[in-house]
Fold these 4 entries.
Entry 1:
Amino acid sequence: MKLTVRGRLKSQRVSKANAPDSAKYLVKWKENRSIGVQLRECRLAKGVYPMVVLVCRDLCCDALRQMHIGGLLVEINGRNTAMMSVTKTVAFVKTCTKTALLEFKRGPGISVSRVSA
């Protein structure tokens, strides 16, 4: 007896979380050097997350072009960063196996330029 399934299985459906314009995105880090971002602690209702406060825009860090100031580092290799301090998060990134998969959530964006009245 052959079983045929019409349409896509639930596991094959594309969710909004996997869409290119979604609020979350992944960054693969292969090198044993600096990632090219600076992080600072950000307290939210769901926990304390590392927030991106500076992104390197040099040619050496071309893979970071989707990253913006205000983004939150949510997971490192599947490990939630909500209760890790920024110091522990950076230490974990340095010691974890490479290629590391970093999951970021887009933040509201923060303007660092000053406006004079």
Entry 2:
Amino acid sequence: MTIHVSLPEALENMVKDRVESGVYGSASEVVREALRRFFHVSEDNNIHPEDIEHIRQVVGPRLEAVKNGTATLKDGEAVFDETDDMLVE
């Protein structure tokens, strides 16, 4: 079966980078591997497309806030330290 898809420029560049790195022999190999992983995770871990969409809705605005400077990222260790401090109190 042959399917033609259009990719946004950013994804196209990622695919090209993987092929140019020598990890994959063609763009088709990259896409096949990505789809295998997507469906494997979806089936084995009961992650459904609606779950992924929910994650995008939650994370998307926060990522945009970081990008536009209205929020900052915290180091993972700092978050764990803060959590530990709250549990001790």
Entry 3:
Amino acid sequence: MSESKEILPGKKVEITKDGSLGLLALGDVGLRAWREVRNKITKEKSYEEE
């Protein structure tokens, strides 16, 4: 499962739960976006298990 987000103006990046070196290279902005997607996926999975 992944999500496409606009991290920088005009640049869409595909973000997966596993992350990528590209997100790491973006620094804090990339890490925040990855954490947001990771947390969303984790919450969705926990709702499915209930």
Entry 4:
Amino acid sequence: MININNVSIIGTTAEIAETLKNIFSTPQGTVPFDRNFGIDIGILDESINLAQGKLTVEFARKVQQYEPRVKVKEVTFITDDDNNLIPKVRVE
């Protein structure tokens, strides 16, 4: 399972990291007047490998749209103690 609520953000200020965490942990379609904000959580229903690829693209696209002060350089996935995959997003 991929856990998008505990995304690790590397390479930026605390303010921008908090903004990115808000984007990444918000399900798309739940923000009134901006239904595109957030991540398409339907991606999480895909197979792990496919979901990882789609989330990488989704993170980069949403950062470009909602936080243009940084760009996604790399997205990796680490395993926590419960065998959940946690996205680790490096920005610059």
